[in-house]
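FORM 7B: Structural annotation worksheet

SECTION A. Query
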Amino acid sequence: MSVLGYTMGKFPLTEVTDLPLGYQRGYLATKMINAYYQKFKPKEFDGTQVMYLHAHGPGLVNTAKKEVTKLEDLKGLKLRSHGLSAKLVQALGGAPVGMPMTETYDAISKGVAEGVMCPLEAMKGWKLGEVCNYSILNYGSSYSTGFFVVMNKAKWASIPADAKQIIEKINEEWIDKQARVWDDIDEEGKLIMSQPGKKMVRLSKEEDARWAAKVRPILDNYVKETKAKGLPGAEALKFCLDFLKTYQK
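SECTION B. Predicted structure
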């Protein structure tokens, strides 16, 4: 298992799932990435046997000391990010600070970073709730990060057909299980940020729309870059946006 965004450019079409599409739940992010894979069967995965894909809950702005209620509050703010989320930070006016998640806690505690782009589950799972005091619920511009669970293709070919069927059935079950886990652990993060001294900041409808408009060029650039590579990026983006629009009611 690994993360699409750790090897930028390796999965150019599937990077659509890492875009700021306005995710509201990890459950739907995981359902969407698997629906996308089944429809487009991108060649970038041909070197492996795909078990299943999954994606975390809404990636949001979380800050240590500064309460953010509008775009202007983000100007120059140093936020840990990676891959496409770094482009998101830039689009919103912040200053991306690239580093592994394992270094984020120390970076924020020492002021190297002033916050982080990540899902709420990290407030508990990575203990970032100890160094972050504000979680900004910028759902209109939220992103996710795609994960892949794959197997060596030669090893897969050596497995008997009846065993393959069992594994494939388990994979289908785990799409749903993993999707629910992302939602469950986001709820745990929300509890951390609901404690005294912490605050979850919900943007106004108008402000959330401003943020969404700021990140829209990232989506347009994805379409432009994939088209140059002969990939159906426009179709993939439309599919994902339509999926979320249909189920995020």
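SECTION C. Observations
The chain has eight helices and nine strands. The radius of gyration is 18 Å.

SECTION D. Sign-off
Analyst initials: ____
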